[in-house]
Amino acid sequence: MTAPWMTDVEKLRQALAAKDRAGANDAVAALLDAKAPLGQQWRQIAELMRVSGELTLALRAIDAFVAAAKGAPAARYSKVVLLTQAGRLREAHELAETLPAHIPDPAGRAYLLGNTALTLGRVEEARAYLLTAVKHRPGWGPAWLTLSSSGSLKDNPIGEQMLADRAAAERQPEGDLARYWYAVGKLHADRGEHDDAFAAFAQGAALLRKLTPYSRQGNEKAAHAAMSGFPAGFIEELNRQQGIDTSRPIFVTGLPRSGTTLVEQILASHSRVADGAELNLLHHAAVATGGVSGEAIAQHLAAGGSIEKLGGLYLHLMAERFGPEGRIVDKTIDASRFLGLASSILPEAPLVWMRRDPLDSAWSCFRTFFIHGVAWSYDLTDIAHHFMLEDRLLSFWQERLGERLLVVPYAELVDAPESWTARIVKHCGLGEEAGVYAHHETDRAVATASSLQVRRPINRDGLNVAAPYRKHLQPFIDAYRG
């Protein structure tokens, strides 16, 4: 006789084949409620639910996997990974601390704990773990990269240890070696050794460019799609079709390293704002519509879709990540490509676009290792190409959205922090509070390259950062301004 839960397995297969999110969710929930004996398959189901943004089901599934494995350390490590991916870094850190030193291996465990500790602002704890990681795995680029981001190493003996590890680093795979060169570049920059810094960053970028080539044609096509099919009045007409409250999210976009994390931190210091992160949730709505263009949205609606359901999907996935309470800052790195979709389905969501001096932005992007890979950032002329596309996007959305889109010049925010902070807060529909003017005192996890900077008061350190490297940046200057 077939076990009753086998029917739910078949329902799950059918739902996945039909790309039926609700059906897949119902089938997984039924399997969990029935305590189906799926063993190792629970880990696969957990990953499936995580990728689709259904974190409640993902966490239930990983708990079922851990239970099936009788709490084995390797299974608990799988839960640590899922918690990290779900943004639950404190839980991940606490669980990782309970694992034996060899899970997943001594270097890997120390590296994981070092990363989560740094994200939580525990710098000395992070450095201790990361030094343990390179002790167990000499030359390991990922650990050196995180160590380099833990603050200035100008007068720290860790720097000399890093340089002495070069031979071991050169025996690592190219991706890890690239991370090592980014770490060395940061060390030289801390020391004011500008030529050596640029050379190291360039070596890392060259390795990554081989691994992740940049397609100018592909980027141009994506930018065109993002602006296509949004004639005057189109977004406003769709907004009138939205019948649910969509004021919870606050979108902060702009180029990477342009001050978006600073604005996120300012807003997250308000009592009505629960948190913020690079959420990457809009792509789920884009999958539902079949694209980000106005034409894709219109075709989806003509086929029976609704603005209310699209907005509801985004808000549901946000609640999966952060719970139901408080407003949330979404600073997804490429939100400029989803702005038409976001403004159409979430009419009450404030939109903020950060602008920084192009040369400072270019240098900051070139010297930053982006964990998810940003192919245009590995070459100065590619950076110029991408920046020009983003300039076109900004001009387009300023014309289409008007005052709904607040453009914040980073230099002006730094020079007049109180007036610009008040303006940002007002634009986002928030009342005046003292906390937003002391954002550096807010204790929260920040999982971006700016995690340490935003824990300091607003300062001018981010202005004119490219000046010492100007001679090296001429290819960008010629391509962008020429």
Commentary on this structure:
The chain is mostly helical. The chain has 3 domains: 86 residues, Alpha Horseshoe (Serine Threonine Protein Phosphatase 5, Tetratricopeptide repeat); 107 residues, Serine Threonine Protein Phosphatase 5, Tetratricopeptide repeat (Alpha Horseshoe); 266 residues, Rossmann fold, CATH 3.40.50.300. Helices cover 58% and strands 5% of the residues. Helix 3 runs antiparallel to helix 4, helix 6 packs antiparallel against helix 7 and helix 9 packs parallel to helix 12. The model has no long low-confidence stretch (mean pLDDT 94). Keywords: Transferase. GO terms for molecular function: protein-tyrosine sulfotransferase activity. This is Sulfotransferase.
Which percent bin holds the helix content?
55-70%
- Let me know the CATH homologous superfamily of the largest domain: P-loop containing nucleotide triphosphate hydrolases
Fraction in beta strands: 5-15%
* CATH structural class of the largest domain: Alpha Beta
Please give the alpha-carbon distance between the first and last residues: 75 Å
Count of individual beta strands? 5
Largest sheet descriptor: 5 strands, parallel
| CATH fold-level topology of the largest domain | Rossmann fold
Q: What is the CA-based Rg, rounded? A: 23 Å
Compute the number of helices: 25
Whole-number mean pLDDT: 94
Q: What string gives the helices and strands in order? A: HHHHHHHHHHHHHHHEHEHHHEHEHHEHHH
Which structural category fits the helices and strands? mainly alpha
Provide the number of structural domains: 3
Strand order of the largest sheet: 2-3-1-4-5
- Oligomer state equals single chain
Low-confidence stretches: none
